[in-house]
Amino acid sequence: MRVALLSDLHIGMHRPRLVQPMLDAISDAAPEHIVVAGDLVQRARRELFAEAEAILDQTGLPWLCVPGNHDIPLMNVPGRLLWPFHEYEMSVPGPREPLLELPGLKIIGVNSTFPYRWRNGRLTDRQIARVKNLARTGPVMVVQHHPISLLPGETKELMLNAEKAITAYDEAGVDLVLTGHLHHFNLASSASGMKQIHAASALCDRSEDPPNEIAILDAEAGGFQLTRMIAPKDGADFVPQPPIALPSRR
Ligand SMILES: [Fe+2]
Ligand SMILES: [Fe+2]
């Protein structure tokens, strides 16, 4: 089973010249599904969501997404508080917390975006309990926008309940946690082997970010292979990197 991992497209503040190379890289890798870890758009406007949807639909593949902090209104306070996910839901197929059971990989989507927090997000006890319950049979990948751990050397505040989530996911036997938001790739491991994949941004045009990238995940008997595909800042293609082997926990 092969899945393409994307995050932080930020359509509206993206690099249009990388859209076709991204689609070509996905087409060449021939995954069966696409997973997007939020921040589809820069601002939660219908035309930007429609553009993001059109780009992803061009792959001809099914895709699932969870909301990011950029996918809800920022300055429109009534919209942010009263119907924050309205525009998102007009374009993104499926629920805000999708569940996908593929052969060899169960993907549990979690909505960590919380309109009352500026950008850091939160998880509720109920959301954490849902993951624990669904993770009884695996292998399992949780996907949510906000990270549950920091990058090495970083001191930023984590979302509310991050520590609780990391412990609960780990104890439940979750194999992989895919998160976005930081725009920096990182791979972390818990003492018992749960891997946290911090995704870089697929397309965002923020000058201080590292190069854009996407990843391909292969779920195989006994584990996973993660292949990063990086578009150098002066390049025109997403270049596959040597695969990283990630053992399964069960
Ligand atoms: Fe982002
Ligand atoms: Fe974000």
From TrEMBL:
Q: What is the name listed in the Swiss-Prot or TrEMBL entry for this protein? A: Metallophosphoesterase
* Keyword Methyltransferase in annotation: no
The UniProt similarity line reads: Belongs to the cyclic nucleotide phosphodiesterase class-III family.
Q: Which InterPro entries match?
A: Calcineurin-like_PHP, CNP_phosphodiesterase-III, Metallo-depent_PP-like
Which one of the record's GO molecular function terms can you name? hydrolase activity
Pfam families associated with the record: Metallophos
Q: Which intervals hold domain Calcineurin-like phosphoesterase?
A: 1-184
Which organism is the protein's source? Answer: Paracoccus aurantiacus
Report whether Metal-binding shows up as a keyword of the record. Answer: yes
Keyword annotations from UniProtKB, A to Z:
Hydrolase, Iron, Metal-binding
Q: Which domain of life is it from?
A: Bacteria
